[in-house]
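TICKET: design request
STATUS: open
ATTACHED STRUCTURE:
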């Protein structure tokens, strides 16, 4: 009898535990349904309002502004298109390029006697401040805290200000430092999120870990396990970031490891594509699944015509010139591959050639269904750059037609390990650690266990 009673008690306890688990799940599910419903309601009412008042760009009744840019409720985002912002580099102004700045702004060019007008989601004039540019991106950045995947990438001819917009000088910081500050401010002192960072560059088609404890080595990129999608980068280090200060130090370290060189077009030209990935995993109530948002900040190397950039036809025995030429060729090839991917996505082709370059392979999860992507196009107004300015604008206009679908939040099971970097659905592996890097000296991580971390136009683009 005693034995049977003890058995029954144990079964009762386990049933109670099961009931508790179930209650937790039901309550999270209800909350998540309510959140999605109110988001959907907001989208529908905003869309109806915009339709009845004649579409986007029309005046809203007083006090009834549309949802802020980048928020899921915005009308153009019902289809989840890639948003395209355009920033003009300050410098020689020319009557051949004129702009109507602001939302739904335009850039008009006159090239070889032909006028063309490009409409973009937002146009920033040459005197736009770093603050103005970031204000337009901030809602998208903050949505990562709620589990959305956001990718912001800069694109444009060499020397047009991509790194300036992304990083900015210390006295006038750009998107990356502002985004980090904004995220940490939003999380507040009683932080509910675990933040993880990784940083890679693609130099001459080699993927390198900019935050590796030793000298950056070439990392292998491969497809994730069958059926789980995603990309894996073997040996990539992910770092737990305890605070904003540490994050800034790590980014400074990563930037100093990035390949740059002087060219005829830019004294400090980035010779590689740089990808910074932050994963923000929400701490969750017991037994409930959490969310893991991802922010990808991508500073692409600039497209360049080899001759103009001083990289063409190096005299014999000029190793630097030969190196610049090879860099320019690989940069242009990978940007061409990006154009190919965008063209396939735009046309909803069943096969998207993500495998054509390391850049597109790494960007695959960031351009997947349900992600939010923003392209910041940088252009020059100098008459001698006009051909490339028109080329970049054509590229951007077509990118703006790519539909990724309405943004979706990413849910993760409670017990997952290291957050994935560029992946939305790859299993999480690795040994996270809490580094305390000091400027100039690499932090001391426990790199991945070797099984691979989940990573989740120039001339004539094929669009
Ligand atoms: N909005 C701006 N205000 C002030 N200076 C700017 C601005 N945009 C660019 N610059 C300056 O122009 C120069 C080139 O900018 P930057 O290095 O950011 O170009 P890039 O597009 O990243 O070039 P690359 O592709 O060669 O790396 C820098 O000296 C930068 O400070």
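STATUS: resolved
RESOLUTION: sequence designed for all positions
ATTACHED SEQUENCE:
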């Amino acid at each position: 009898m005693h034995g049977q009673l003890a058995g029954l008690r144990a079964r009762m306890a386990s049933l109670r535990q099961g009931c508790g688990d179930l209650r937790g799940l039901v309550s999270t599910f209800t909350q998540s349904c309510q959140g999605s419903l109110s988001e959907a309601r907001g989208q529908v009412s905003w869309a109806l309002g915009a339709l009845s008042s004649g579409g986007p760009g029309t005046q809203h009744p007083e006090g009834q502004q549309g949802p802020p840019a980048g928020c899921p409720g915005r009308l153009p985002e019902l289809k989840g298109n890639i948003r395209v912002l355009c920033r003009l580099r300050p410098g020689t102004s020319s009557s051949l390029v004129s702009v109507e700045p602001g939302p739904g702004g335009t850039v008009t060019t006159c090239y070889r006697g032909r006028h063309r007008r490009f409409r973009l989601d937002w146009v920033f004039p040459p005197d736009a401040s770093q603050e103005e540019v970031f204000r337009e991106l901030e809602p998208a950045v903050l949505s990562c805290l709620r589990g959305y995947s956001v990718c912001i990438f800069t694109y444009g001819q060499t020397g047009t200000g991509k790194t300036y917009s992304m990083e900015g000088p210390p006295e006038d910081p750009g998107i990356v430092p502002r985004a980090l500050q904004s995220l940490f401010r939003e999380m507040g002192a009683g932080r509910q999120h675990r933040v993880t960072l990784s940083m890679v560059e693609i130099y001459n088609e080699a993927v390198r870990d900019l935050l590796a404890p030793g000298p950056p080595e070439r990392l292998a990129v491969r497809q994730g396990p069958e059926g789980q999608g995603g990309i894996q980068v073997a040996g990539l280090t992910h770092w737990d970031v305890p605070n904003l200060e540490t994050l800034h130090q790590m980014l400074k370290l990563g930037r100093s490891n990035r390949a740059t060189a002087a060219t005829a077009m830019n004294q400090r030209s980035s010779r590689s594509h740089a990808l910074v990935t932050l994963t923000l995993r929400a701490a969750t109530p017991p037994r409930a699944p959490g969310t893991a948002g991802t922010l990808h900040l991508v500073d692409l190397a600039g497209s360049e015509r080899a001759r103009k950039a001083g990289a063409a036809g190096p005299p014999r025995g000029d190793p630097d010139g030969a190196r610049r030429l090879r860099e320019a060729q690989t940069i242009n090839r990978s940007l061409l591959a990006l154009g190919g991917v965008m063209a396939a996505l735009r046309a909803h082709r069943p096969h998207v050639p993500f495998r054509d370059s390391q850049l597109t392979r790494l960007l695959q999860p960031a351009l997947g269904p349900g992600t939010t992507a923003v392209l910041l196009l940088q252009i020059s107004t100098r008459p001698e750059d006009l051909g490339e300015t028109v080329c970049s604008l054509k590229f951007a206009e077509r990118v703006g037609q790519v539909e990724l679908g309405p943004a979706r939040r990413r849910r993760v099971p409670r017990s997952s390990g290291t957050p994935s970097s560029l992946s939305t659905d790859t299993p999480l592996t690795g040994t996270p650690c809490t580094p305390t890097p000091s400027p100039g000296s690499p932090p001391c991580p426990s790199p991945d266990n070797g099984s691979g971390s989940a990573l989740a136009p120039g001339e004539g683009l094929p669009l």
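CLOSING REMARK: The mean pLDDT is 77. DSSP finds eight helices and 20 strands in the chain.
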